[in-house]
Amino acid sequence: KLSLNTWASVMSSFASRGVEGLSTVEKLQKLFRASGPVLMEREDFHRAMQLAAEAGDLEHVADLFNDMVCKGFEAQEDSYTLVFKACRQHGLDFSTKSFAEKYFYAMMSMGIEPKASTLSEMDKVVGKP
Predict the structure, then answer these.
(1) What's this model's pTM, rounded to 2 decimal places?
(2) Contacts for 86 with CB less than 8 Å, ≥ 6 apart
(3) What is the pLDDT of residues 28-49, one digit of tens each?
(4) How far apart are CA 48 and CA 75, in angstroms?
(5) Which of these, 128, 50, 44, lies nearest to 86 by C-alpha position?
(6) What is the rounded end-to-end Cα distance, in angstroms, of the chain?
(7) What is the pLDDT of residues 6-26, one digit of tens each?
């Protein structure tokens, strides 16, 4: 397994250059899952979640979120914001909106007060009330 920084640099380089065989989001997602780094710190999980969110890989962001919590790291507001970003990038259908709402309610039930930036990201997914 690669260190997170090495892995992220390689993936960013491949994506920016459009290396043959890695030009589509789907192929990057498969490569991410197959060769992903060992995540040891909360910041590692967030970096990996950020990369997956940018690709719109909602399932992988959710898996990383759950793995982070299972390893004893507390989900914080920025963790949830990454989920909402992944939802926006994934596409705004009914199931994605429902998924975002589930995480929003979980965040609120944990007593996490969303900042304006988090609310803005959530609004981009479900629309303003």
Answers:
(1) 0.73
(2) 49, 52, 53, 56, 57, 58, 61, 62
(3) 555 555 555 667 788 888 888 8
(4) 14
(5) 50
(6) 44
(7) 556 655 655 555 545 444 555
